[in-house]
Write a structure and sequence with these properties.
Largest sheet: 2 strands, antiparallel
Radius of gyration: 25 Å
Number of domains: 1
Distance between the termini: 66 Å
Structural class: mainly alpha
């Protein structure tokens, strides 16, 4: 009975947030018809940001669904299978380090959400001028009611945009910690055997396969979030960079350029944080290769050689890690490609 009541409340909350996001998007798009040309860039960026938040919210409903999502199944497998095997192997989980990272990320996302909402409140109180205040309420009249609605909408839109991002980063850090603990254990086992294959290579290989399975199952949900986050943030970063360098003088020679610069730093920060953490997961997942290459295979049994070949085929086969809609795996090379795109784009704009 109590669970049913909680489920109803949660459904009402989801419907409420969905309506708020829809109304905020409609309000922002309607503002295009009442905005002068110099403010079109700003409204276009905000509209794109809200669309990204709206898609993130819909993806959250999919990933949290028992029918279409995979989160519950993955963490059930994680608790009942993966962690049990790690304990049996005597692999210590770096929970203290991960908890500190988790607490830092929680504080950071709270600061960003409250800071963004606080800035919006300052704009609505006229602290940055009447034009900025009217921009946020257009096409509706600037009164207390519309300002409260605008603040609530901004809060939930910011929450919908940032929460999935930081959730993915947190889970990625969890998988990175598990892989790091596994790699240390495997290296120690190999060193204790004088660089020979450990006696329990079969169970070690199976444990690694289970870790890879958990990452693969998580990616079934995360890949769509990654695609949405990378698409909007890369697109917005390129557009904001264009506005700062080649935008109209009404934008580049006013206080608004500071706002654009802040947005640009935020998009770069989101892209860097997500891609670096996920690339580290990919790097950690293939780290056992360095240990295997030093293994002495002299006088090895046929059974152990078969296990070693299976382990190698897993490590050298398909990339293990998180992807963008299943198309590209987030690796260090992927980060360099994105950085190259931005540098080339900046150089072309600067020389024009």
């Amino acid at each position: 009975m109590q669970n049913q009541k909680k489920e109803r409340l949660y459904r009402c909350y989801r419907v409420f947030v969905l309506l708020v996001l829809c109304l905020y998007l409609a309000h922002t798009i309607a503002g295009f018809f009442y905005t002068d040309q110099s403010s079109m860039y700003k409204r276009g960026i905000i509209s794109s940001w809200i669309v990204g938040a709206f898609i993130n919210f819909l993806l959250c409903q999919k990933s949290g669904s028992l029918k279409y999502g995979h989160q519950d199944k993955v963490f059930q497998f994680f608790n009942e299978n993966l962690m049990v095997d790690m304990k049996q192997k005597g692999i210590p989980f770096g929970s203290k380090k991960f908890k500190k990272q988790q607490q830092f990320l929680c504080i950071l996302v709270c600061c960003l959400v409250l800071g963004n909402t606080g800035y919006h409140v300052c704009v609505l109180t006229g602290l940055f001028g009447q034009d900025a205040e009217l921009f946020e309420t257009t096409p509706f009249p600037s009164n207390v009611f519309t300002k409260i609605l605008s603040t609530v909408a901004k809060f939930y839109a910011t929450l919908a945009y940032m929460t999935p991002l930081f959730y993915i980063i947190t889970v990625s850090l969890l998988m990175k910690t598990i892989l790091d603990d596994f790699n240390k254990f495997f290296t120690n086992q190999t060193c204790q055997e004088s660089c020979k294959i450990p006696e329990d290579i079969h169970s070690i290989r199976l444990l690694y396969t289970k870790i890879c399975k958990a990452i693969s199952d998580l990616d079934k949900d995360f890949s769509y979030f990654n695609g949405n986050i990378f698409f909007w943030n890369i697109g917005l970063a390129l557009f904001i960079l264009y506005v700062i360098l080649k935008g109209p003088s009404a934008v580049t020679e006013s206080f608004e350029v500071v706002i654009y610069a802040y947005w640009l730093l935020m998009t770069f920060g989101f892209l860097a944080a997500l891609s670096v953490v996920e690339a580290m997961v990919n790097s950690m997942a293939h780290a056992p290769l360095d240990t295997i290459y030093y293994i002495n295979v002299q006088d090895i049994t046929v059974e152990k050689l078969a296990q070693l070949n299976l382990f190698l085929s897993k490590l050298t086969g398909t990339q293990v890690g998180f992807t963008t809609c299943g198309l590209l795996t987030i690796t260090k090379e992927f980060i360099l490609t994105i950085a190259g795109v931005f540098l080339t784009y900046f150089a072309v704009l600067y020389t024009l």
